[in-house]
Amino acid sequence: DTGVSQNPRHKITKRGQNVTFRCDPISEHNRLYWYRQTLGQGPEFLTYFQNEAQLEKSRLLSDRFSAERPKGSFSTLEIQRTEQGDSAMYLCASSSSRYNEQFFGPGTRLTVL
Amino acid sequence: AQRVTQPEKLLSVFKGAPVELKCNYSYSGSPELFWYVQYSRQRLQLLLRHISRESIKGFTADLNKGETSFHLKKPFAQEEDSAMYYCALKNTGNQFYFGTGTSLTVIP
Known about the structure:
A: seven-stranded mixed β-sheet; 0% helix
């Protein structure tokens, strides 16, 4: 296990298109988090899964954003009808409920033209 | 509402000098506080958390509930400490809130 992985690493899309990102957590971790990070800011919480259940979702997250974690393993984050303001780094992190230390992935950098 | 404030975006110190990165928070409940670090071209990683009360790479941080602060300190800065540092708060719902980060440069 090489840690949390995210694909793709970079995504360039045109405004109005849909995009989907994937996160593969550390295999024994039951918690999975999605964050968004823009230039000069810290990671901003988007949503959180415990196993396959989505337990928390940021109020800042519009209806265009949806995340899934089928079978409690990998997770996908979809953004529909992308806007230029969605351009950011999207980070995934996983942890175990026992130790709660988050391990971050390398991120997916989204550019919306 | 939860909020984490890191007042310094940039901080430069000379090698061997003490360093303190400031973090203040607001939260009505009982928080868990963390410091994360991101070295150049590396992933964000946990540096330390207040409940462990441990020293990592010479860094310590004490939670001061009266001043709602969790400042990160090191008595003698090293060049390899140059990185981006983020203070984070975890609420009872397991949501994490990060500050805007402080970029630390240790001058040789």
